[in-house]
Every structure is written in C-alpha cells, then in structure tokens.
Amino acid sequence: xxxxxxxxxxxxxxxxxxxxxxxxxxxxxxxxxxxxxxxxxxxxxxxxxxxxxxxxxxxxxxxxxxxxxxxxxxxxxxxxxxxxxxxxxxxxxxxxxxxxxxxxxxxxxxxxxxxxxxxxxxxxxxxxxxxxxxxxxxxxxxxxxxxxxxxxxxxxxxxxxxxxxxxxxxxxxxxxxxxxxxxxxxxxxxxxxxxxxxxxxxxxxxxxxxxxxxxxxxxxxxxxxxxxxxxxxxxxxxxxxxxxxxxxxxxxxxxxxx
Length: 258
Fold this sequence. Notes:
By secondary structure, the chain is of the alpha+beta class. It has helices at residues 14-29, 34-41, 45-57, 84-103, 145-151, 156-162, 178-191, 236-256, and strands at residues 61-63, 69-71, 106-113, 116-123, 138-140, 194-197, 204-212, 218-227. Helix 2 (34-41) crosses helix 3 and helix 4 runs antiparallel to helix 8. The longest helix has 21 residues, at 236-256.
C-alpha cells in the first residue's frame, strides 16, 4: 500500500486554516461577500471580515465596489462565476447535504486538473469522530477515489500525456507506475466505483462514483469519506447505490442549468 500522502497537523491553527480556505473559495468560485464567507467557514461576520482584510493587505484578495471580495494578484484570477466548478457546486451542494443526512459521513465533490484533483465542495458529518472538510485541498489524482475514477475516463493517449516523463523531470518519485495504474483503471471502468483505503490519508476510507455530463464524460467525482474504524465492507454495495443515486441527481441538476 502506498504511504498515506497527507496527515492533519497535530496542532492545527484555526485562523490559518480559515484564511487558506477563504483564499481557495475566492480562487475557485470568483468571489464572496463577508456574510457568504462567514456562513461557509462557520465563523462570525467580524471574523470573516478580519480574514478578508488580511487577504486584501497581502494581495490575496481585492474588494470590489459591490462589496464582493475576489481573488487578488497573488492568486491566479478565478474563472468566471458560471464556470464548471461554480455550476457543479450549485448543483451538487444540496445533494452532498442529503448524503450527509442519509449516511452521516462527510460528502465531497472533486474535479481533476492534469495529474491533481481539487475538492471543490465538502459537507462534514455531524459525528464527533468524522473526516473534516477537504474543501479547497489538492491531492495527486492517482491517490484519491475521485481522481482514479476521473483518470479511468481517459483514453490511453490522454493518460500518457498526463503522466509524460518530462513533466516529472524534477520530481521523478511522484510519477506513478503506469503499468500498475492502467491495471487499476481497467478494474474501475468495470465496477463504476472506487474505494480508497488509507491511500491518501492515514485512518481514512473513501468510496466514490463519477458525475457525468450529457455526453457521458466524467466531469467530477462524488465521494463519502469516513474514519477507517467505521468502514464496513458489507455496506459497500449500499453505499455505492446511495452515491450513484446522488450522482444522477447532480447530473439532472447540471443538465437543467442554462
């Protein structure tokens, strides 16, 4: 088994985490007001205002005349608010919340860019022992449930391009074994779902399915993450069925958007 990639720090600093999540929200979604950010971070408006003021001071954000904060020059300009990420969030969030109501485990929506994936939406479980929000976080695609599902949708040529050796000239150890990866992706194409047992983070299991567009191409991955001590393999089929129903609902919502 691969060494887990990320382990939460033993002494997390909430203020730093809030600032980083705020920056990711501005970059991913194009902008937010103080009230919107406070609601997303589950903090007081005064706290959200101080976070945004510091991001503006350090050029991570800019404040418009409409009182909306947007990504600043330190960050790449966010895509237009009607980007795929924004559409996926609008379509997916209600169904992530419903998944949490049904399963009481953390639900996520993930997209792929090249050889990485980014968590674009995450709704936490209410249980005391739970997987925290991964919203805004980036992982190598081949180390995550959704990433494997999205990679399995690529042609052989596209996969070769994603993992071309020259892209890893300065970090050869980060390039996966393509023969092993192809074998794994063939298996995923047959099953239609993926299970990640502590591959990306120690003590975490994730189960995921793809979210597809009208042309059948995989646009995103929908997953639930739970502590490994609570994972029961006998519940896998039920979990997958629940995830597939949610993914189909997200697909219908996307199709209905202008």
